[in-house]
Amino acid sequence: MGATVDRERIAAAVRELLGAIGSDPDSRELASTPFRVADAYAEFFAGVGQDPAVLLSDAIPVGEDTGELVLVRDIELRSVCEHHLLPFRGRAHVAYRPGARVVGLSAIPRVVEVLAARPQMQERLGEQIAQVLEDGLAPRGVLVVLEASHGCVADRGVRQTEALAVTVASRGELAEDAAQTGVFSLIGERRGGRAS
């Protein structure tokens, strides 16, 4: 976790930041804060320097026996916006139409997690997930829908705590409107009384 993160430098920067806002970083209340922030950043940015394509390296050849669509929805998403270093969180829904290979279903949330664990923009994150699947599996189509609440929208500026940003990235057959409509309906289905 966070092997590329220099905890000592982060702790020193947090001490400087605390002083810059007028707080005493050596006070009893704040003395451990720089190290806690360094540990948190190591977790938040653990995806920096990791290659998410490795997670698809054990794809299974299946030929024509793949079915029409694979959808993993409601993947918990947590990232940090690169503009203000504030968190954004929500859900990712990832669909693909297999070509000659499929991957274990747990690989898809892992790809999302690795790409989200770096300074990020939601719009870019969806495109990166789609591209990793495109490159790693050569599917007939990919569709990635991200829904997230952003700290920079909820906690500062306009302070819209209920606002959700929704982004869509697509490739191949799932870039077509008719195909997307079908996937959107699957994403929006209610299961067990809960909306997706």
What attributes does this structure have?
single chain; 196 residues; alpha+beta; GTP Cyclohydrolase I, domain 2; 2 domains; two-stranded antiparallel sheet; 6 helices; 7 strands; elongated
Q: What can you see in these coordinates?
A:
- The chain is an alpha+beta fold.
- It folds into 2 domains: 7-44, no CATH class; 60-188, 2-Layer Sandwich (GTP Cyclohydrolase I, domain 2), CATH 3.30.1130.
- It is built from 6 helices and 7 strands; from the N terminus they run ααββββαβαβαβα.
- The strands form 2 sheets. The chain has a 5-stranded mixed sheet with strand order 5-2-3-6-7, with helices on both faces.
- The protein is elongated.
- The two termini are 30 Å apart.
- The relative contact order is 0.14.
- The model is unreliable at 191-196 (pLDDT under 50).
Question: What is shown here, in short?
Answer:
With 196 residues, this protein is of the alpha+beta class.
In CATH, the architecture of the largest domain is 2-Layer Sandwich
- Alpha plus pi helix count: 6
CATH class of the largest domain: Alpha Beta
Mean pLDDT: 91
- What distance separates the N and C termini? 30 Å
Largest sheet: 5 strands, mixed
Which homologous superfamily in CATH is the superfamily of the largest domain? GTP cyclohydrolase I, C-terminal domain/NADPH-dependent 7-cyano-7-deazaguanine reductase, N-terminal domain
Helical percent range?
A: 25-40%
Radius of gyration: 20 Å
Low-confidence stretches: 191-196
Please give the domain count.
2
CATH fold title of the largest domain = GTP Cyclohydrolase I, domain 2
- Counting DSSP E segments of at least 2 residues, the number of strands comes to 7
Structural class determined from secondary elements:
alpha+beta
* Shape designation: elongated
Query: Which strand order does the major sheet show?
Result: 5-2-3-6-7
